[in-house]
Design a protein that fits this description.
302 residues, binds zinc ion
Length: 302
């Protein structure tokens, strides 16, 4: 019995030390990153930019009913009058989607099977060659893996735009996605500077380094038809949690995804305040229902 107790203590100690070695560095890294946010006036100025985009749609790739909500994987596609497209996030192919669902099921069982609607490339169909720019709200694999398929249908000729933080600051969960971007067929362009960063060739689009969820988490703000859409990635997983300033809890933010929780709270409050304005709407990556309710329509290739 004494030996059994000693083995239990030794095993627990190894586990705790192992977790600390794995998680303390990314926590220290992310806590040191809080880039400045733009003012309301700076964001609002996007609404008056000339030659801005005329269309914005959600491109749904997959969805899985979960106890707390339906977990969606999607992209947002924005179109300018000359036909060029900017795509935000790439979701995953079928195999990676199913593998991702199996991993999540280890922690919490789903309420039903994954519904796979197609890769982002499949869903864009004949419009895919019009892609001229891409961006990622962050480099977690469930937002990036579909870049393979986008390269297959688009080929070289488009550029991935990222902030300096997204290009340079990685952790255990973003290295794989960062490598996929680096090795992709697309040109990489780093947007230097702070606050609201313009993207050359895409009037009406602004990029903001957020951090919080990952060191390189990024907001994409775009004005379409008098409304400013704010693609906030995974700062919250559900819009209702963003609006009620509810965090993801210690298990998620402390042990699964090392988050800067002080920063994610600051961002929730900031985004909820912007969302309350009649001319701004926050989009939460994994929450299809909220995106559709806010007026973002499904993409249908013409
Ligand atoms: Zn995600």
């Amino acid at each position: 019995m004494k030996w059994a107790f000693r083995i239990l203590i030794a095993t627990s100690t190894v586990l705790v030390v192992g977790l600390a070695i794995l998680l303390v560095p990314p926590h220290l890294q992310t806590r040191g990153i809080s880039p400045p946010l733009p003012t309301d006036d700076e964001l609002q100025a996007l609404l008056t930019v000339e030659d801005g985009p005329t269309q914005i749609h959600i491109v749904r790739s997959s969805q899985q009913p979960r106890p707390e909500f339906n977990l969606g994987h999607s992209a947002v596609v924005i179109e300018w009058p000359d036909g060029k497209l900017f795509v935000i996030d790439a979701a995953m192919d079928r195999e990676a989607t199913l593998e991702f669902a199996r991993t999540i099921a280890l922690v919490s069982p789903p309420k039903g099977p994954v519904q796979f609607h197609g890769t982002i490339a499949d869903r864009l169909g004949e419009a895919a060659p019009q892609i001229s720019g891409l961006g990622f709200t962050h480099l977690h694999i469930d937002h990036v893996q579909g870049i393979h398929d986008l390269c297959r249908v688009r080929g070289a000729g488009a550029s991935v735009y990222r902030t300096r933080l997204q290009a340079q600051e990685h952790n255990l969960h973003t290295r794989e996605g960062a490598a996929l971007v680096e090795e992709s067929c697309f040109e990489r362009i780093t947007l230097n500077g702070e606050g609201l960063l313009p993207v050359e060739g895409f009037p009406g689009l602004g990029v903001v380094a957020l951090a919080g969820h990952t060191p390189g988490s990024t907001l994409f703000a775009v004005a379409v038809d008098g409304k400013l859409w704010l693609m906030s990635g995974d700062i919250s997983n559900q819009k209702s949690m963003l609006l009620s300033n509810t965090g993801k809890g210690f298990f998620y933010s402390g042990l699964v995804v090392p988050e800067n929780t002080q920063r994610t709270e600051e961002l929730r409050l900031w985004l909820a305040r912007l969302d309350a304005r009649p001319d701004m709407e926050v989009i939460v990556s994994h929450d299809f229902a909220a995106a559709l309710a806010s007026g973002l329509e499904d993409f249908n290739p013409r």
